[in-house]
Amino acid sequence: MSRLITYLLYRSRPFVPVTITAACALLLLRIVEIFFVTFQHPDITVSIRHLAEILLYDVVFIFFSFALFTPIYFLIEKYSAAAAQRLHIGYIAFQILLAFLLSKYFSVTLVPLSSDVYGYSWNDISETIAASGGIDAGAVAAGLFVVLFLAAIPYIARSVPTPRFVLSLYYAASLLSIPAFFVAEPDLSGFGSVSDYNLALNKSRYFLERSTGYFLQKVFGGSEYSAREYPFLHAADTSDVLGPFFFRSEKMPNIVFVIVEGLGSDFVSGGMYGGFTPYFDSLARHGLYWKNFLSTTGRTFGVLPSLLGSLPYGEKGFMEMGPDMPDHLTLVSLLKENGYHTSFFYSGNANFDLQDLFLEYQHLDRLVDQQQFTAAYAKSEESENGFSWGYADRDLFRRSFEVADEEQKYPRLDLYLTLSTHEPFIPPGKEHYLDLFYERLSALRAPEETMERIRNNSAIFSSLLYADDALRFFFETYKRRSEYANTMFIITGDHRLIPIPQSTTLDRFRVPLLIVSPLVRQPEEFLSVSFHSDVVPSLIAFLEKNYSLTFPKDVHWIGAGLDTAREFRNIHSRALMRNKNELIDFVDKEYFLADGRLYTIAHGLSLEPVVNDSVRNVLTMKLDRFKQINRYVCENNKLYPMAGKRRVRWEPLNYDSIYASLNLKELNTDQQFNRARTLAFNGQFVEARAICVSLLSRSPNYHDVRTLLGRTYAWDHQYDRAKEIFLEVIRRSPQYPDAFVGIAQVEFWSSEPEKGLASVNKALDIQPENLDARLLKAKILRSMEKRAEALDEVNAILAADPSFEEAEELYKALREPAQ
3-state class of 512 per DSSP? Predict the structure, then answer.
């Protein structure tokens, strides 16, 4: 033993000084994080005692992490000292860069990054980073400093004294850190709010622990479930709890869902930050209002599956399964079968979180996202790094009325998902809403701590005022429409706004639910607890009972229906997915389990910590049981038996093996599209189609891809198939000019120049500056012996682009004497 100690001490002089230097750097980085976050968010407080505790927890984690690395270092050092030292520096680089990036993330969101990062595509991550302000100059400078520091560590370490007692002290601390690691962790009950607690957490430890749990569950979790083939399948509960609150109309009612981004219960009347949604608050006094309502996920990825389908979560969220989503029912598909026209309105990119793919599964009639906004609309103001999520809420509502007037189809199911209360929080007319913010702030009567928190987040509360004003515009406009008298409006939030500190873990899920309609008999307020996943069972029962609609006798709902008790109570049990990959919260009547901690749920959804191992173990078993069933049904398509009616892909050919042979996994979506274009231009149509079909299986409204697919058939002289695809693009996006150009080409090549001319004119009506369309028009006119008109088109092209070679060639041909 003494020989081993002597050996370690002898060999430690290059290792220990570098490690101690790195540990000091990590602690310094932690102090900077605490200072920066508390400076940006003065409402987050850190006492001297808490600061000492935080640094103690960090020291334990840092020494523990290096204690794990120590035997690896000496094992390699025995054979190659240089290799061991390089690995050591690499390990330190990983630790410091990880801590830096996680601190940067936390400073923006006030939520420590977890395994949910594995649930997002790179495109989703890049959009979220851009919306949060992107990688600014300060972040780049800090990152460069970290890199330079890493390079300088060996030189700095030379100045660290390493007498024998320092080396011995280091190893003693490392050994003590191993048992201490399992007990030295912040206790939530010791902090004033969840945000204070989150600041105390070591972000690297949190992220690595959650990531380890995620991958262990992925490898060893298993998906076998033998009790029942379809464990969620059960007879539909036809109890009509909503009917007594409504007048019955002669016609089937229109149903409108308005899902307001970030509208948590904290921000409406009676909430901690209430006072900035005056119109919503006035609506709540005229409808059916659930004050103690909960979303089932902590981010937007879960609201559509839960609210419309009472669906389980899969591994990363139901929609994230993409083409592998198990067969299922939703309100959209069921109402469509009963004669409803179904629409979804969203002013951003509907492929975010694969929303469009989920709705594609339901055979939605009309999807309107940012691609379907006309030139009459301008995107929301960009953030400093040039990013905009899409169009503002008022424009979303205006565009939806235009679409409804074009369609004139009833009864309708219309779904809205808003965006203006999302980062970067820049509403239209921001100066006006900032003035309105200060006006309302002066009238508030709240504790000074709350007032200070509101003042420090003026952009967010100004955006809330704008979103509330847009909601006012929506209803005031709707009231002038003939269908208003026969319409039910269901308003809720997808989750609580994340950047504002939350008091409890459950606050993340607290959102209002409001049903307003001229058909409501009288206003009612319910204090009982219900969830997003309870809406569709009750709505289906209401429509079946009162309007004789036909629905399946067996369903897969995980919800049990809305509770309409006036007094506070919770009769439900429900697992909640806080982030993608994080199914760690469970509500069971009066208890709430979060991160293994047990709470009782008091009036108003406040939480009280409780120590009751028997109850905690029961809830843990229930959560584990749900996880097992959730995984089984989603991985084995055992959610709902479709009796041979499984959805058929619109593209009949199976290109999976061809796509696999192209080895494109390392390319992102746009890079794959560019590869498909190159293959198509080279005449490799089958390979190009394989890529297009794969891309469309995850992004069905990527119209450039679908148009390219149509062109591969046109170039391959399969004109009927090409035209079918172009028409599908137009059905999805009536203002997409390239699809009309594609049809015009097919008609021109099929010796139908008159039809081709009509189609290309439609493209030019939408996009007059489209020079390729003008060139095609000139060619069609020439084939129709309208040389003068063709020459006018060519002259217009060359005036806009004198270097357009193909137009120059056509000009010369048109100038030649007719044969």
Answer: strand
Please state, in angstroms and as integers, the Cα–Cα distance from residue 305 to each residue in 81, 319, 347, 407, 700, following that order: 55, 7, 19, 26, 18
Nearest by Cα to 567 from 188, 291, 271:
291
Distance between CA atoms of residues 630 and 635, nearest Å: 9
pLDDT score at 53: 79
Judge if pTM exceeds 0.70. yes
pLDDT tens digits, 250-299:
999 999 999 999 999 999 999 999 999 999 999 999 999 999 999 999 99
- Quick: pLDDT tens for 658-669: 888 888 878 888
pLDDT at 652: 47
Distance CA 520, CA 81 (A): 78
For residues 485-489, give the mean pLDDT. Answer: 97
Query: 524 has which bridge partners?
Result: 288
pLDDT in tens, 174-204: 888 888 888 777 776 666 667 777 888 888 8
Q: Which parts of 319-428 fold into alpha helices (H)?
A: 331-337, 355-361, 393-407
pLDDT of residue 235: 94
Evaluate the omega torsion of the peptide bond into residue 312 and state whether it is cis, within 30 degrees of 0.
no
Which residues, including other chains, have CB under 8 Å from residue 775's CB and lie 6 or more apart? 793, 794, 797, 804, 806, 807, 810
Short-list 478, 490, 471, 353, CA closest to 413? 490
Assess whether the previous peptide bond of 428 is cis (omega < 30° from 0): no
Q: Is the dihedral of CA 653, 656, 659, 661 positive or negative?
A: negative
* Higher local confidence (pLDDT), 656 or 564: 564
3-class DSSP assignment, residue 427: coil
What is d(CA 313, CA 328) in angstroms, rounded to the nearest whole number?
Answer: 12
CA atoms within 13 A on the CB side of 488: 24
How is residue 579 annotated by DSSP?
B
547: pLDDT confidence band, cut at 50, 70 and 90?
A: very high
Average pLDDT over every residue of 556-577:
96
Residue with tokens 């069921």: 334
> Residue 185 class from Cβ within 10 Å (0-12 exposed, 13-18 middle, 19+ buried)?
middle
Q: Residue 317 — left, alpha, or beta (φ > 0 → left; ψ -120 to 50 → alpha)?
A: left
Cα distance between residue 779 and residue 783, in whole Å? 6
Cα–Cα distance for residue pair 111/579, rounded to 1 Å: 10
Check residue 437 and report its DSSP letter.
H
What type of residue sits at position 722? A
- Cα 327 from Cα 645, distance rounded (Å): 9
CB neighbour list of residue 337: distance below 8 Å, 6 or more residues apart = 550
Mean pLDDT for the chain overall: 86
Answer yes or no: is pLDDT of 19 > 50: yes
Contacts of 568 (CB under 8 A, 6+ apart): 292, 527, 528, 529, 603, 604
